[in-house]
Write a structure and sequence with these properties.
By secondary structure, this protein is of the alpha/beta class. The chain is about 35% helix and about 15% strand.
Length: about 375
């Protein structure tokens, strides 16, 4: 039985928990917190004011999420994370928690580490590409009080040595288990990309291969934090998104391939609409250009018996077994061929492969790391 009685889980300032549409980290937090509470742990959730996830206490670092500004220039965005962490650390001084489980990139461990023994021990989950911040990860010393958890072995293998030495373990990401659903379940004719529109996710590649294979494609996910197609059109027209890398990628490389028929963009989706698109998809596409460390969308698809067609980047080879639960190819020609072989995949094999990535298993792994961290800092 875990020795942890209470924990502050810091979700960060970008999106509410649970998110109303896209939200990778926030979905993970929304999946983890209920399982920790079921295990008898008191959870204080640090998040933004529009969050609705039930917890034993809340710290609201900002009134609402700031995801629309996440890719803004540094001189416009840096104050968001620092204002948020100021509110969190101020509240933390009056809270009685055994440890902090942090999910805020770089600023979380930097601020909490600077607090020294004024803060409880900290475990940060690493959700991102660790090559982005070499100056931080190659020099940061948590002095045993700030430690890390990777979300995949492939992510940890690419980490700087100093960060590897401060990592307690690897905890694969879980996705929420499918809830009761009374909508259509018969497989449709479309394939699906379920991710924010950004060049790393390869939506342009998905559009080209789907067109070449003669398979309708649905793109679901926000552009520059905007999930409503009408709002995106207005923002592109008024110039407020000029220079935003995701908006530029959408405008120049993806939108010209979207015709509303062979390739459709449905904006951000959640709830019943997301469930319908997933359950009726012939496959989930993940033609990533980057070594994604964790892929909850892939796990969600496999839970529903939906095969995955992807590039063998990052965590994907450990989630998708080529020829059994989907197909992995480096090149577009191979991905096109894979879309012609989807009928060879047994949905039951996909469901069975997802079995290890349950929310309860993720929570149990984190409780083990919590205990190890507290033992080191007794």
């Amino acid at each position: 039985m875990s020795q942890v009685r209470s924990v502050l889980v810091n979700a960060g300032p970008w999106l509410p928990v649970p998110p109303t549409g896209y939200g990778g980290i926030e979905t993970v937090v929304a999946t983890l917190v209920p399982e920790l509470r079921r295990a008898g742990v008191r959870v204080v959730l640090a998040t933004v004011g529009t969050s609705t996830l039930e917890a034993d206490g809340h710290v609201f670092g900002l009134p609402e999420g700031r995801f629309a500004q996440v890719a803004a220039p540094y001189n416009r965005v840096s104050g968001i994370t620092h204002a948020y962490m100021h509110a969190v650390t101020t509240a933390l001084r009056d809270l009685e928690v055994d440890l902090v489980h942090d999910h805020l990139e770089v600023v979380g461990p930097a601020v909490l580490g600077a607090m020294g023994t004024s803060a409880p021990p900290v475990l940060q989950t690493l959700h991102w590409d660790l090559r982005k911040h070499p100056d931080f990860y190659e020099t940061f010393d948590g002095r045993g009080r700030v430690r890390f958890a990777a979300v995949s072995q492939s992510q940890l293998d690419r980490a700087p040595r100093r960060l590897q030495e401060q990592t307690l373990g690897v905890v694969p990401l879980a996705a929420p288990l499918p809830e009761p659903y009374d909508g259509p379940t018969e497989t449709g004719d479309h394939v699906l990309v379920l991710a924010r529109i950004t060049r790393d996710k390869g939506q342009d590649t998905a559009a080209r291969i789907a067109r070449a294979a003669g398979v309708p494609l649905v793109l679901a996910g926000p552009v520059a934090g905007i999930g409503d197609p009408d709002e995106l059109e207005r923002r592109l027209a008024d110039g407020s998104l000029d220079g935003h890398p995701d908006a530029v990628y959408w405008r120049d490389e993806v939108a010209p391939l979207v015709d509303g028929d062979a390739v459709r963009w449905v904006g951000g989706v959640a709830g019943g609409e997301k469930e319908r698109l997933l359950r009726t998809a012939r496959a989930l596409l993940a033609p990533n250009r980057w070594p994604e460390p964790g892929a909850t969308g892939v796990v969600e698809a496999l839970f529903r018996g939906v095969p995955v067609v992807a590039t063998p980047q990052g965590v994907l080879p450990s989630l998708v077994e080529h020829g059994v639960t989907g197909y992995l190819h480096d090149d577009e020609d191979g991905l096109v061929r894979a879309l012609g072989l989807l009928d060879r995949i047994d949905p039951d094999d996909c469901r069975a492969a997802a079995a290890p990535w349950t929310p309860a298993a993720m929570a149990a792994s984190y409780l083990d790391l919590y205990d190890l961290l507290l033992k080191e800092n007794r």
